[in-house]
């Protein structure tokens, strides 16, 4: 079962145009949208914010060459604004995830599933299945667009 909160990562090419890297990260949590962009730019609900930024459900700061995003739900992101992204989650998400990071159930052999939750037959099929626009859907359409949401 996949959760309805959303993390989207945009992959682009690096300065040499022959290396793929993370160029943008978007996070949707209930009623807040956060985008981490290159050059240490952070957008919250479509507006650029200064760091450190604290909101009732998130905090974002720049520290030792990375942007740190912490949420009240225990989700933590570290991004170096050039390509390296690290996402850590508390155990309460165990077995409730899907997508490019796997399903977080401790069984790496079943991590590569398609959006339909069927096993992928190749890396290319797996990656293509999860390809999306970086634009986050509106809050009113998030649940209706998510094929794995609980009704």
Automatic annotation (TrEMBL):
It holds the Pfam family VWD. One of its GO terms (biological process) is positive regulation of BMP signaling pathway. It is found in: Secreted. Keywords: Secreted, Signal. Residues 1-139 form the VWFD domain. The keyword Transmembrane does not apply. This is VWFD domain-containing protein.
């Amino acid at each position: 079962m996949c959760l309805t909160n959303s993390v989207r990562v945009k992959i682009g090419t690096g300065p040499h145009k022959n290396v793929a890297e993370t160029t943008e990260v978007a996070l949707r949590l209930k009623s807040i949208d956060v985008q981490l962009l290159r050059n240490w730019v952070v957008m919250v609900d479509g507006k650029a914010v200064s760091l450190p930024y604290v909101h009732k459900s998130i905090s974002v700061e720049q520290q030792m060459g990375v942007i740190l995003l912490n949420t009240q739900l225990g989700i933590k992101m570290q991004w170096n604004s050039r390509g390296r992204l690290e996402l850590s989650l508390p155990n309460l998400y165990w077995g409730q995830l899907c997508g490019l990071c796997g399903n977080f159930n401790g069984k790496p052999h079943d991590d590569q599933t398609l959006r339909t939750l069927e096993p992928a037959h190749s890396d290319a099929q797996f990656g293509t299945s999860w390809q999306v626009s970086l634009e986050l859907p509106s809050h009113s359409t998030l649940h209706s667009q998510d094929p794995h949401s609980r009704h």
